[in-house]
Give the backbone structure.
Amino acid sequence: MAHSLVQDLESDSLQSLAQAQVGCDFQISRLEGPGCDQLRNLGFCESIQVRKLANGRNLICSVCGTRVALSSDLADQVKVQPTDS
Amino acid sequence: METSNDLIALAGNPNAGKTTLFNALTGSLEKVGNYPGVTVSVKQGEMRNSHGKALELIDLPGSYSLEGGSPDQQIARDVLRGENSKIPKPDLVVCVLDASNLERHLQIALEIIELEIPVIVALNMVDVAENAGLRLDPVKLSEELGVPVVPIQADKGKGLVELKQALGHPFPANPETRWESNDAESRRAFGLEVANLAARRSEAHTSTVSDKLDRILLHPILGWVCFIGIMFALFWSIFSFAGIPMGWIESLQDWATGLVENAMAEGDLRDLITQGIIGGVGSVVIFLPQILLLFFFIGLMESSGYMARAAFLMDGFMAKVGLSGKAFLPLLSSYACAIPGVMAARTIDSPKERLVTIFVAPWMSCSARLPVYLLLVPMLLGGSEGGAMQALIFLGIYVLGTLTAFIVARILRGKLGPDEVETHFMLELPPYRFPQWKYIFRHVLDRGWAFLKNAGTVILGIMILLWAATTYPKLDSDDPGEVLSHTIVGRVSAAIEPIVKPMGFDGRTGTAILTSFAAREVFVGSMAQLFNVDEADEDTETRNSIREILAKETWPDGRKMFSPAAVISLLIFYIYALQCLPTTAVVARETKSWKWGIGQFIFMTVFAGVASLLVYQVAMLFGLA
């Protein structure tokens, strides 16, 4: 019971990269969806830090020092939380 | 591929600098660029290690993972696993990793280590990584991975001596895997841990020059202004600036004709040289500057890193026709030549999108069509070259071909249905770099040389055959028309004329179209020869521009032969017809089906014929005769 409550609270604090604010740093918490493998190949992995640089049909972000453009469908599958800093 | 030397493979992520390293080690000048997916096939060369021993080196297409991926990535996977029928399993793999992004690049290195082949890591672009604030520790990386690590800067030739020493015998032993199990999850966790130890990233995100440039070049409005500006500069330079060097070639051609005419007595041989060789081949060679400029601009975009930005900007537009931004690059390359364009489609993940891209790529007006357009367009403007109107018509031609390609792509994509596995747009935007001039110029010269070689072989051969066919069998008559109709060409023309007349062409134009199925640019030379025959006796006239001669041609009833309706009809035919056998062969190879290659050829030729017929008939109705 307590465990599921923790999970729910954690999920509430997560947002997708598509919804995240431009110009901010985030940490990837989870990847969920059919595009996970494609995302992981380009460096989107759990615990990695990502900075969102631009919004749009395809959004731009910086991950591991590389700029990557990805469709908002894919960005929806990346769950992030703000970094502590 | 058979070799007694040890086989070394260069592998790694796309855009890690494998081909730059390959060129540096082998002295080759293979095409390099600053975007993922420049190398789509295996390149091979020979190098020597520091002991002078010869080694066979192969450059594999970049791959993010040994699982799945687009066809170019599958090639790399098959070779590394020893499953390629033509290339044996490598004796050693040099994993080329971008030091500024070890978290990602290490993943494929770990997959390769699992294959139990000796591995050496070439840690490339260490300068870029250090400038980005990373603290690299190659010794730690080597300890953690259990394989030799050599820091290099392939583009500046640094670290190559150390790499060649590392390639000395005996090769390192097969590495052991140091992660829990051979699955993606364990590899990922291990890779991140190692990257954290060996390439510590500073916490603060620093804004680089590329970030600043992207703020403008990828801006929703400014980005498009820049994109349109760059495209305008590209086409303006081809259609306007190129006129200067074209004038030089023309003068050279006139000088050579004059020289031969003064040195030789009148006769068949002199006619062959002046009309067939200098006139025919020269009328094609004159377009060399435009072809060089087109390849130069595309090379510049590829080398600087802008090509990936253009693909990003175009994605939204391409999605409307069922394609993605990844199809932009193959289609843009096809403006230069459809063959590299069709091959570049290998980087598209979706199999159906790839097929559609390949199918419509030849409708991007390639450089071989330029000579035809440049001959015909001024005829719509009273023979004058240059000017805004000509540029506008050229733009219209390119837009028409492209739009038709997009409409057909949309229909075909709808008919093929969705992919079995859904793919999404995702593209690495590499940092901007100064163009590698050496490779750009080499690539441009290679393409120019290929064009000249084609002019010197295929086109020269056809010109000589055509000259013979317009000269023999001879008839002893003073009427040039009667002489021509007695020759082989005269007879072929008479047979073709009923078919091509509804499209607005006479038999000679029909014959010129037939000859251009060998290579489109032959059309100009063929027209020069076929229509010069009548004027053969008037020596000065033969040197006149082919356009002036065509403008004087009339049908037997006195109507102008090259009326606006007929010229537009001809242009339409050349915009749509697929007159390039090498393209058909490459399409068949890439789609692994002759059905697609031949189907595309028939479809485009029939489409061109019907479109040309309709346009001519409608134009006649509007009084453009």
